[in-house]
Amino acid sequence: MHINGIDIVIPVYKPDDKFRALLKGLAVQTVRPDKIIIMYTRRDEGDHFAPELIELAMAAGDTTVIELDRSEFDHGGTRAEAFRHSTADVIITMTMDAVPYDDSLIENLTRHMLNPTVGAAYARQMPAETSSLAERFTRNFNYPDEEICKSAGDLEQLGIKTFFCSNVCAAYGRDVYEKLGGFIKRTIFNEDMIFAHKLIMNGYKIYYESDARVIHTHDYSALQQLHRNFDLAVSQAEHPEVFEGISSESEGMKYIKQAAHFFTENGKGYLIIPFVWNCCFKYLGYILGKNHKKLPAFMIRALAMNKGYFDKRD
């Protein structure tokens, strides 16, 4: 048996040098994609996907560009629409700032996808050379160097991390994806974890492929962390069927304790102070997001990273 086609879906908005590096990285893969489906969000009516970027993408695989207005973008709905344009056995989602670390990304990411019990696999996210020590710790904490196969039997031990699967770079089997109804069509965040919950609760496995690596990193400020965690918590509050009863606070305490040890080991124990400060903003954003329905509309818009999501609310 072999995989009959591998397509890649990439939502794109304001493409930059990282996106160019991504396309160049796809062109030299040991396993090449059959098609690249680009969901391009226009900045305004006169904006269109640049021909030079189409040329770069075509060097990696047949390319389809679908343009949409900013009001049409949705984390789940946009990806679900892109999947409709693919007939491949395996579909890989990537974000436009996830740059392949080497030429074996696709090969390593898809190596377990022939197993009918595996519904998804996701890649390891590596820090950039310019990343701060705090960001290096965060990437290593969330993306260790050991492969993991997760199933419903891991819920007691892993808790909410059982459902962790990042669309920064993840592979999905078409048959299972369609059988379970695909990505939720409207969500502010966490479309990947919401679908991962479906996979796990329906008896499928999720692989964390530590040898499949992308460079993907963000040195967020404290305020940016607040906005991001606000959106994250809104998605959790709106999907109690996934997140209710599985606490993520204990994971947060583990995160801080390991960070203190990491900074001390690297001779920079003083960094724990700004790190904890950032964590406080993360937690504040999380609490506000969990309770967003109690907040006035103007405050919700001020706190949200994805403000357009609330413009489309019924």
Radius of gyration over C-alpha positions, nearest whole angstrom: 19 Å
Question: Could you say which structural class the secondary elements and strand pairing correspond to?
Answer: alpha/beta
Distance between the termini: 47 Å
Q: Unreliable runs, pLDDT <50, ≥5 residues? A: none
Number of strands: 9
What name does CATH use for the topology of the largest domain? Spore Coat Polysaccharide Biosynthesis Protein SpsA, Chain A
Write down the secondary-structure element order: EHEHEHEEHEHEHEHHEHHHHHH
Instruction: Note the overall shape.
Output: globular
CATH superfamily of the largest domain: Spore Coat Polysaccharide Biosynthesis Protein SpsA, Chain A
CATH top level label of the largest domain: Alpha Beta
How many separate helices? 14
Helix content: 40-55%
Q: Classify the beta-strand content into a percent band.
A: 15-25%
Instruction: Please tell me the overall pLDDT.
Output: 93
Main sheet: strands, sense, barrel? 9 strands, mixed
Named CATH architecture of the largest domain? Alpha-Beta Complex
Counting structural domains, the number is: 2
What are the salient characteristics of this protein?
single chain; 314 residues; alpha/beta; Spore Coat Polysaccharide Biosynthesis Protein SpsA, Chain A; nine-stranded mixed sheet; 14 helices
Report on the architecture of this protein:
Strand 1 (6-12), helix 1 and strand 2 (35-41) form a beta-alpha-beta unit. Strands 1, 2, 3, 4, 5, 6, 7, 8 and 9 form a nine-stranded mixed sheet that branches. Helices cover 41% and strands 18% of the residues. The mean pLDDT is 93. The protein starts with 5 loop residues before the first strand and ends with a helix. By secondary structure, the chain is of the alpha/beta class.
